[in-house]
TrEMBL record:
Domain of life, source organism: Bacteria
Protein name as it appears in the record: Sulfur carrier protein
InterPro entries per UniProt: Beta-grasp_dom_sf (IPR012675), Mopterin_synth/thiamin_S_b (IPR016155), Thi_S (IPR010035), ThiS/MoaD-like (IPR003749)
Signal peptide location: none
CDD domains: Ubl_ThiS
Gene: thiS
Pfam short name (any one): ThiS
Length: 66
């Protein structure tokens, strides 16, 4: 399956969840946020959210401020 991960075309397993993707590409989850097709996915849904072909996934560090 083909996706765009942080603006880079990438091939992944067809059954990959967001949590599996994080374990492959990002070791630390503290402060990590994920957006799929410009929608931030809550951390509690990462283990069940399946990535689809041609999804645009962005892994980024969430920053608090005000």
């Amino acid at each position: 399956m083909k996706i765009i991960l942080n603006n880079i075309k990438t091939e992944i397993n067809n059954t990959t969840t967001l949590l599996e993707l994080v374990s492959i590409y990002q070791k630390e989850t503290f402060g990590l946020a994920i957006a799929v097709n410009d929608v931030v996915i809550p951390k509690e849904k990462w283990s069940i959210f399946k990535i689809k072909n041609y999804d645009n996934v962005v892994l980024f560090q969430a920053i608090a401020g005000g």
